[in-house]
Amino acid sequence: MEPTAQNPPPGVPRPVPDLRPAADAVARLLDGVTDGQLGDPTPLPAYTVRELLGHLAGLAAAFRDTALKKLGPTTDTPPDSALPVLDDDWRTVLPERLGRLAAAWTAPEAWEGTTRAGGVTLPARVAGEVALNELVVHGWDLARATGQPYGLPEASLRVSYELLAAAGDDDPLRGTNFGPAVPVPAHAPLLDRVIGLSGRAPGWTPAAAG
Q1: Around Cβ 12, how many Cβ atoms within 10 Å?
Q2: Of 96, 90, 109, whose CA–CA distance to 23 is shortest?
Q3: Where is 179: in which H helix or E strand?
Q4: Confidence class of residue 33 from pLDDT cuts 50, 70 and 90?
């Protein structure tokens, strides 16, 4: 494998990922979600747009606490334990939670030692990469479900790609929201390859779910 930003030459530490671009991208999508779309399908068969937004709100709080190593119900509950509930004030609360999530992972100590996420104890470095991957993939889910454009820096996508490529289909943190990989051509855009590894068809549309 050629050295990359995430896989530098031996002896050179990997840079710490920045969650802010992905968190900001998801937050920008929120203004494009209409009340009439809340019941629409998403690439997750069990979730409408309403449940997807509820899931994003929950994971933003959970992975913020994971970064802070504030262990408790938010960090110890499996992601698929119950159908997410979206609070009425989500248009205010969700952007704030996304901002706090990204800010929590800017602290160097957030990436050190071990922590918990989804009821699983794991290295803090891995937990931070999982948090970024959640934003990357579920941001795509929301963009597709609501007909909005979506793009991220290559650095964010590369973290997701390498994390998903290394994880098995039975990884406990995948839950029911990440299925077996969908084949995607090697020459496809990096975002499409990430989405394929997450178990989604890059060409998914709400019409296809009808």
Answers
A1: 9
A2: 96
A3: none
A4: very high
